[in-house]
Amino acid sequence: MVDSLKKPQFEEVRPGVKSPAEETILTPRFYTTDFEEMANMDISLNEEELQAILEEFRVDYNRHHFVRDEQFQKSWDNISGETRKVFIEFLERSCTAEFSGFLLYKELGRRLKGRNPVLAEIFNLMSRDEARHAGFLNKALSDFNLSLDLGFLTKSRKYTFFKPKFIFYATYLSEKIGYWRYITIFRHLEQHPEHEIYPIFNFFENWCQDENRHGDFFDAVMKSQPQFLNDWKARLWSRFFLLSVFATMYLNDVQRSAFYESLGLDAREYDKHVIKQTNDTAGRVFPIVLDVEHPDFYQRLEKCVTNNEKLSKIASSNAPAPIKLLQKLPHYISNGVELIKMYLIKPIRVDNLAGTVR
C-alpha cells in the first residue's frame, strides 16, 4: 500500500511527474500576442524611465537568492492530509504561473531583438527572473516526490491571444498582485514564525521585489503609450481586468482556504487586504480603479463562491454529463450576473498626475 504521506493521490503522467491541473477559467493562463505591433512600438515618450528600469534589471539583485540551503534538508512528512494536498496545489499553480511568464517574456525578447532593443533586453531579463522562480517552485515540489514537466506544459497548454495593450493590463496586474500576495505572507510569517510550515516562504521578501520591478516596467511601458490609458475604452478595460484578476484570486483562494489556515491566515481577510493594496497601486497608472469598499462588492463575490461550491458538487456527482450541464447552467448564469453587477459598481476616477482619486 502506498504511504499516503509520501504519495498524495495526484494523477501522474509517469512516476514522480504530476499531471498538469485541468484547465479551467480559474487556472493560470498562457499568453501570446501581436509581436509585430510590439516590435513597432515607439517608447520615446518614456524612454528615460525605461532605460533606468533596464539598468536595475541588469544589476540582477537576486542572482544569488534562489539557492536551496540546509533549511530544505529534511523530511516533509509532517505536512500531511489536506494541508499537504493544498500546499502541493499552491506550488503547482505558482510554478505554472511563473513558467507562463517565462514563456511569454522569452518569446517577446526573441521576437523584438534588433527591432526594439530596450524592450527586447528587458523582456529577456524578466524571463530570467521568471525561470528562476519556476525552477525554485518545481524543485520544492520534488520535496513532495512530485515535479511538473515544464516542456510538456509548453506544448500541451492552450495559449490565449491578447493584443499588446491587453497583455500590458494583464501582466501589470499579475505582477503587482503577486508582489502584494508574497509580501503579505512574508510579513505575516515574520510575526508568526510558528506557522512557517516550509522554508520557501523565507524567500518571499526578495522574491516579491522581482514582481514589483516587473510591474514597474509595465507601468512605464503603458505611460509611453498614452493611447492605452487616456480614453473611454481604457476606463472600461481597466475595470474589466481589475475585476477579472480580483475575482479569480478570491474564488481560487476561498476554495483553497485550508492552505491559508495552515499559515495562520484567513483566506478572505488575506484577499481583501491584497485586493485593496493592488487596487490602490493600480491607481498610479490606470485611469480608474474599482470601489472595493462598496458594500455590494464582496457580497456579490460571496454569491459567486456559493455558486462555485454548488458547481463542484455537481461535477463530482454521478449524474450523466448532459444532466450535469443542465444542473450547472443556472449557477454559471448567476456568476455572470453577479460579475456584471460588480462591473457596474461606479468606479473611482484617478488623477495620475496628481496622484489622487476622485
Shape: globular
| Share in helix | 55-70%
Instruction: Extract low-pLDDT stretches.
Output: 1-8, 352-358
The assigned structural class equals mainly alpha
The tally of helices reads 12
Beta percentage is 5-15%
Mean pLDDT: 90
| Biggest β-sheet strands, sense, barrel | 3 strands, antiparallel
Q: What's the total number of strands?
A: 7
Radius of gyration: 21 Å
Could you state the order of secondary-structure elements as H and E?
EEEHHHHHEHHHHHEHHEE
Order of the strands making up the biggest sheet: 5-6-7
End-to-end C-alpha gap: 63 Å
Write up what this structure looks like.
With 358 residues, the protein is mainly alpha-helical. Helix content is 62%, strand content 5%. The protein contains 12 helices and 7 strands. The strands form 3 sheets. Strands 5-6-7 form a 3-stranded antiparallel sheet. Strands 1-2 form a two-stranded antiparallel sheet. Strands 3-4 form a two-stranded parallel ribbon. Strand 6 and strand 7 (356-357) form a beta hairpin. It is globular. The N and C termini lie far apart (63 Å).
Task: Describe the secondary-structure layout.
Blueprint: E1 12-14, E2 17-18, E3 30-32, H1 35-39, H2 47-59, H3 81-112, H4 117-142, H5 150-156, E4 159-161, H6 164-191, H7 204-224, H8 232-255, H9 257-262, H10 267-282, E5 288-289, H11 295-315, H12 321-343, E6 348-351, E7 356-357
Helix pairs in contact: 2-4, 2-7, 3-4, 4-7, 6-7, 6-8, 6-10, 8-10, 8-11, 11-12
Features:
358 residues, 7 strands
